[in-house]
Amino acid sequence: KGFIPWDDDIDIIMPFNDYKKLLNILKNDKHFELKAYHIDGWFFPFSKLSDKNTIVQNDEYLKYNTSDKIMWGVSVDIFPMHGIPNSSILFRIHRMLLSFVRSSILKSAEKKTADIYNNSFRSNIYYFFCNFVGCRRWQIILNFLYSLFQNQNRIAYLFSPYKNDTHPSYIFNQLEEISFENQNFYIIKDWDIMLNSLYGDYM
Fold it and tell me: Which of the residues 3, 12, 103, 140 has an alpha carbon 20 to 30 A from that of 203?
């Protein structure tokens, strides 16, 4: 009912339709700052919600052309879950396309530095191609790929590092209330199904 030593952050996942509703609610919140794919200067396929009354410096994003300072408050990451194709082969192809587009978005957002010009010829061609297309167009392509399989029986965070991070969509329909760090939160009722899918015998 609290943080475990080897995992000291909180990640939130939710179906894409709920994710869109949440972003709409939070975009003008006075107490929290929202960074999301549709906001200038944020190039990542998840959102970050941070407390405006705190400050955290994170050098991980310094190489990108963010439109704001690399400073924000204590935050949580919010990951959208999208529908996936029923065919495992089509799923792999879909994921490969998404990975390429995501890499192209990040590459087009990189700052021009001397290191870029010291890369291989192929790397430089890829860098200039990504910038020629531009972040906005890449994001339009990404959103189109997202939309292809929304009403499916299984959903996934499509950039998860876990191979088995796909889940039946119905498990997000029923919730239960739990206590965490002396606060009550709602989580999916069938959390055991998700944890088994991710980690196997996790206990």
Answer: 12
Give me the phi and psi of 70, to 5 degrees please.
Answer: -85, 55
The dihedral through the CA atoms of 72, 76, 82, 84 has a sign that is positive
Rounded to whole angstroms, the Cα distance separating 132 from 121 reads 16
Whether this prediction's pTM lies above 0.90 is answered by no
Helix axes 88-109 and 121-133, enclosed angle (nearest 10): 90
Instruction: Tell me the per-residue pLDDT of 147-199, one tens digit each, with 9 for 90 and over.
Output: 888 777 888 888 887 777 888 888 888 899 988 888 898 888 888 888 887 77
Short-list 88, 96, 110, CA closest to 154: 88
Cβ burial of 104 (10 Å; 0-12, 13-18, 19+) is buried
Distance CA(109)–CA(64), nearest Å, equals: 5
